[in-house]
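Example record for the data management plan.
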Amino acid sequence: MGVNTKPSKSPVKILIAEDSPTQAQRLRHILEQQGYEVGVAGNGRLALEMAPQFRPVLIISDVVMPEMDGYELSRRVKADSDLRGIPVILVTSLSDPQEVIRALECGADNFVLKPYDEHYLLDRVRHVLLNREMSGAADTGSRVEIFFNDQKHFISTGRSQILNLLLSTYDAAIQRNKELNHSQEELKRYSAELTEQTEKLRAVLDTVLDAIISID
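Corresponding structural encoding:
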């Protein structure tokens, strides 16, 4: 499935910003199994403090966190001349289209949907790292003004970054749709099985009732 993302040389450093110890540990385990060196910070502020010393090549951040959320972390990273070349993947439910606009505003590079599949997550990591190698340092692009839901937004992210984020958003939407269709198929199958079991039970009851009536 193309998810073998083990680095061939020295370990690639990835920084996780996640306030849930359980989620952070799971993500850390997945990445370390692939040979990555992983650092963990409990929120965006701690991740921002840790980044200059840890020097990650990728940051994976939850969106909702105390003190500093994932959007603000991405914004600060992209505003720092020493850190702006580090791509940022946001882990989110992507339940509101406004999240895409906010991600564009803060310069995020990619989305991973919650709850995420291990193979899909590793594929996203590989994609972002390969794109980083090909594109080099992030371009700042020109300042673009857009209107969405009667609100004005300013986006200064580079063109390739915008394209990658939009493509990842589309991919995430396709993934969510597949999961929904799978759930619907599971529900249909369960309903069919329940109907079959009900019919069998009814047949048993009819047989028992017939036997009781014949005795009378």
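Summary line stored alongside the record: The first helix runs from residue 21 to 33.
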